[in-house]
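Case 311 in the screening queue. Each case pairs one protein sequence with one candidate compound; here the compound is magnesium ion. For every case the pipeline is the same: read the inputs, emit a complex structure as tokens, and attach any notable structural observations.

Predict complex for case 311.
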Amino acid sequence: MTDDGDSGHGNASAVSTRSGSSFLGPDRLNQREDSTLGPDRLNQRDGTPPRVPSAREERAGVSRDVKGRIEFEHVDFSYSPDTELIRDLNLVAEPGQTVAIVGPTGAGKTTLVNLIMRFYDINSGKITIDGVDIATLPRGEVRGNIGMVLQDTWLFGGTIWDNIAYGRLGATDEEILEAAKATFVDRFVHSLPDGYETVIDEEGSNVSAGEKQLITIARAFLADPALLILDEATSSVDTRTELLLQHAMAALRTGRTSFVIAHRLSTIRDADLILVMQDGAIVEKGNHEELIAAEGAYFDLYQSQFAAAIE
Ligand SMILES: Nc1ncnc2c1ncn2[C@@H]1O[C@H](COP(=O)(O)OP(=O)(O)O)[C@@H](O)[C@H]1O
Ligand SMILES: [Mg+2]
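Case 311 output:
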């Protein structure tokens, strides 16, 4: 494990504001129709023509023009003026790439993803999405393109179906089922007496920890955000569920730029880019093979923390 379990934002897991289903409510839907706001604006500044929306996007009534290139340029950030945390951080995530972030507790992993969400403003430097400085965009617009799946599984006391449907207001039954199937929720649901109508009780004791994670993944899949932030859950699940979780996460990451605070070996191995953080800085960057060959910080971390997990 590389993290102690803090997610920084409590219970706001698997929330995508793109769908207008949470922070901003129905207003977001109106906002999107205004051509001066929303993804179109990002696109205009980038000077690229809008791409043709997929059938799924057409059904959803939105067109996803955000390509999802994220860049940090000389970013400095501190929570308090007297303690500097992130210094001169530079990184590029190309559209569709998976970026895994590893490092010890307190290294700044959660902080880095919080900066992408604009939960905090940086002291100096620039963070861009498709070349647009996020500091110039309304916070709602930035968050509207980002889906989050955080460690604390957040499900409400309703049915499994409603918990998934929450991912995108106005999704059709067909789309909800599609999301459930893609993320393996559909499989375990059929073993429950009430199926999708199973009410997740207060303690969630009728559904296992791994199954709850699958439901939050299904919810994010339905929301279909251009960018994804995953703080992988650390709760222990059985081997079979673990495998399903890996496949569900992979399905969710497909076709979108994803930042993963990684606890799972599989994610780290497959990531296009691994960032090793220590004390607010990226001390190493590369893919798994490159970083193993470098025999540096990642290699040490891998030897000490991950090697045992392979056996
Ligand atoms: N809201 C906050 N206010 C002040 N300090 C914070 C806050 N959140 C995190 N920190 C501090 O910033 C550093 C990095 O934390 P964090 O980004 O949560 O690290 P990680 O996710 O790698 O464990 C830690 O020293 C932590 O105590
Ligand atoms: Mg953290």
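Case 311 observations:
- The two ends are 15 Å apart (CA to CA).
- DSSP finds 13 helices and eleven strands in the chain.
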